[in-house]
């Protein structure tokens, strides 16, 4: 299940990045989304590594990743529908929410990976060394 959730988030991020890259208009709203793409591009390899390592993620982190997936999809849908139909307040609120979700997911995921690495080091150090 962890792999499905992370895989879905990776797919959502890839679709969002592709959609923003294909936009040809030059408006302030899309420039903000392009900045978000820069952050998502940094997060994507971390998520790829998480799938490859097959780490067991805790329930709280999985919930956060699911919420982040929803936020990325909402942002993509906003761009697909066209910002001319949405208010600037809603558009800016969604961008702020997406950035908050990104930061929250990155921080929690990073902490989780650090904890897992520390566990592995401690387990390795506790193994009796025999020559």
TrEMBL record:
Residues 5-90 form the PUB2-4-like N-terminal domain. This is PUB2-4-like N-terminal domain-containing protein.
């Amino acid at each position: 299940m962890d792999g499905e959730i992370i895989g879905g988030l990776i797919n959502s991020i890839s679709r969002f990045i592709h959609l923003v890259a294909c936009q040809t208009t030059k408006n302030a709203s899309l420039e903000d989304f392009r900045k978000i793409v820069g952050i998502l591009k940094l997060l994507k390899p971390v998520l790829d590594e998480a799938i490859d390592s097959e780490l067991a993620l805790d329930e709280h982190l999985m919930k956060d990743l699911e919420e982040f997936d929803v936020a990325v999809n909402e942002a993509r849908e906003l761009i697909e529908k066209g910002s001319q139909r949405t208010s600037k307040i809603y558009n800016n609120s969604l961008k702020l929410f997406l950035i908050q979700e990104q930061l929250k997911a990155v921080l929690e995921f990073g902490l989780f990976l650090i904890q897992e690495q520390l566990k592995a080091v401690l387990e390795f150090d506790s193994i009796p060394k025999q020559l």
